[in-house]
Amino acid sequence: MITMDHVCKSYKIAKRNAGFGEACKALFHREYEVIHALNDVSFTIEDGEMVGYIGPNGAGKSSTIKILSGILTADSGTVLVDGRVPYKNRIEHVRQIGVVFGQRTQLWWDVPVIDSFELLRDIYSISKAQYKQSLEELTGLLRLEELLRSPARQLSLGQRMRCEIAASLLHRPQLLFLDEPTIGLDAVSKLAVRDFILKQNKIHGTTVILTTHDMQDIEALTSRIILIGKGRILMDGTLDDIKRGNDSIDETVAELYRAYDI
Amino acid sequence: MKKYFSFFRLRFTMGLQYRAAALAGIVTQFVWGFMEVMVYRAFYRADAEAFPMSFSATASYIWLQQAFLAFFAAWMMENEIFDSIINGNIAYELCRPVSIYHMWFARSIANRLSRAVLRCFPILFVTAFVPKPYGMEAPASLFHFCLFLLTLLLGLAVTVSFCMLVYVLTFFTISPQGLRMVFTSAVEFLAGAVIPLPFFPERVQRIMELLPFASMQNVALRIYSGSMTMPQMQKAIALQTFWLIAITLAGRLLCRTAELRVTVQGG
Fold it and tell me: Interface pTM (ipTM) of the complex?
């Protein structure tokens, strides 16, 4: 179970106007702006739920994911994931979770993908039998046979993403954070990935939290949607709550953003 | 422990695949070593008595230094570590059940070892056949050779733990440029990479030998040709051990602080 209770997180950002004069001025006097990435965020997610976490750019989605996965520290409020405070006992915590950051890479650039996988096997102390089984399952579902022996740098974005997703799931985490996992995927891979995530949830009861701008991902995967904007939770409900009419989901969401002025 | 060994193994095998870099490195080190030996020859010709080490010991010092350059060169830091901090890929490393410090330590050691393994043998082999006093001598004794190996590894560990400080400090400064410049120059000069420490004036030397920099390449390269006395060697090894423990502890402490206030760059 995941609980976030009145969590705040802010960043200090140096700002200045364009131009040489402004740059010189900033040498002597620097203006900072404090951005409240998360402003009093509270929610609870039960085991086995699939939650879509949506909001416009810069709303605080990734910050939430990073706090939940123990990378960032919350300024105030309490965060509990299965009774653990993620950033307090990071190492204990991350053993139980899987994370995919769609815009980053976890594969070693210059060596074949399979080498990165084997490193992960050792990092998570996965037993030989379980590793073999996970690898076979993932290879089959995400169509990786051809890719495993090539260096990560020579894969296309979509091919790499499939490997990234597999890499995050080798240790069979009970809790999965997906931060824009379908970036760069072709139609077939996208369907495969969605299908795959659904299966993980059904078979293993994996809790999934998903941030994405692809509303079809949300439609296909999640039963519950949390809408965040300017660091605040604006809505927490089901897909039908949002849809109401029978508009396309993209338009509905855009309308929603406009309505909340975010 | 096994997971850190896996990091080590992967980084090591990765390092072995850069053949052209190794070849270029070997050539550079031959040319550089040859040049240095020639410069010292000119000095020794003027007045051989004025030097604290014999010419052939100095030549051995230079060739060993070239052969094990990858062990001790402070500028050979892991760019991937800096990149991961600057562009935010550190996010992935932080969601692994491993200690960041230990993982980077294992990686750095592996990187330096793999580079040195590819480079040291051709250099050691060839220079062993270069006529005396320009080539590499045999070690002073078997005892000295064993101590050489021990202090070589201790020196490597001290160098890596020192570089770890730079990696960790980059969490605070974001850009590694300035730190790298300062650390690298300090190490090059104070560790005896530019000129061996015995060549410094005695008073300066006394202070320099206590600094952590003297625990890097200085000890091993001098023990090899027997230019240190027994009490000097004991003191040097004790200092190496002390600095290794002190710098590693400082680095780990700093790392823990950094992890709590880390920001991930680039969203």
Answer: 0.84
